[in-house]
Structure formats: structure tokens, C-alpha cells
Amino acid sequence: MKQRGDSATLTCDYDLEGGKLYSVKWYRDNEEFYRYMPRLRPPQHSHKLDGVKVDLEKSTARRVHLRELTLKSRGFYRCEVSEEAPSFHSAQAEDFMEVYYFPRESPRITGHERSYRLKEPLDVNCSSARSFPAPELQWLIDGQKVTDRSWLVAYGSKPAPQGLLVTTLGLRAPTKKRMKLKCVATIDTHRRERTVIIETNSGVFRHKATNLLIYIIVITVIRKEVL
């Protein structure tokens, strides 16, 4: 797995067992982009292919060096080795190269700004920054990973510009007096996180304040009538 903007060196190991090399050809999803033929001068030649930039100076008969990878660089890469006449024996092998994009931005948490009462269900969402492929999201409450699926709402991934994806995961856990919520986005070994603090309101003081206000208004009205 490679990150967008990185370079990659693909190696093709072979043993001709005394035979002479005729050609080595490289393909991305069945489209040729590089070949090495020792009988030609120069022996190397590259073909234009979207997402594939060959560095000829770093490429040889046994490897091809790609620079400035993009999301379009991902795909199945195949090398095909052929012997000289009279046999013209050939062999090939392929593998998939994944290219990912993991942003510097942390995920975004929404819904935590409102006031919550004790034991009222949370209504918060975590959305990743634009990435590829879709990152894995997870919630932690006070350092403990949320594993109760009834508390989680998976919204899945939505397309974003430049072929990227945004993933959202909701949290509907019951509130406590004070909670530290953390959302973690992961792709391969890369990780971004965001933390917020929620402090609940029991509603008792708010209720008392309302009763006191009504009481003061009633007293004021009575005094005016006496005068």
C-alpha cells in the first residue's frame, strides 16, 4: 500500500537458466506502460498511461520505478518476461498495488455543542476528513472503545471531490455526568483523532430558577394593587 504522492519500485525477479533475455514488459490493468529490450538502443521505453509516471533513470530490466503516485495509479501490475529465439519462452506474475490518501485533518465531531440532561441519549456524529479508501471510524468513551452496536449508527461513505470519500459514524450512548468522547479514523497504520468533553445538566437548577422568577412576579403585582 502506497500513499498518494509517493514513489514505488516494482521488482520482477526471474531466472533464464542460461537463456538470453528478449524483453521484459510491464502492464497496469492489461495496459503496457514500460518495456526493456536489451537488443534495442536505448533498451528502455515507456508508454503514457494515466496515473503511471516511469522514471527511466531508476528503471532496469528487473525493476520499474514509478513516481508521483495518484489514486489512478492503483491497480493490478504485471511483468512479463520473454526469452530470445529459438524458444521465446515467457512467464508472468502480477500483484495489486493500493494507493491511499490520508489527510492531515482530524475527523469532525458534531452534535456535542447542545445541552444534554443526565442519561439522555447522545446524538453526536463523527465524520472523517476526505480520504481514500474509506477510513475505519471508532468511538471511545472515557478511553474505552464502544463495542455495543446498538449505540452506533453507521452512515457509510459518501463520495467527495477528486475521487475521495467521507465516512460518518454516529453515537447514541446514554449520557453520564461528564464524558470524554474520542473519535478515531484509521487507514492502515495511519491514525487521526478528535476529542470533545460533554458535561450534562440534571435540569434541577433550571427548574428552581423558573419557580423563583414566577414567585417574584406575583409579589410585585400584589404590591401595586395595594397602593
UniProtKB/TrEMBL annotation:
User: Any coiled-coil ranges, and where?
Assistant: none
Sequence intervals crossing the membrane: none
A family per Pfam: ig
UniProt domain Ig-like: residue ranges = 1-89
Thylakoid recorded as keyword: no
Asked whether the keyword Nucleotide-binding is assigned, the reply is no
Task: Report what the protein is called.
Answer: Ig-like domain-containing protein
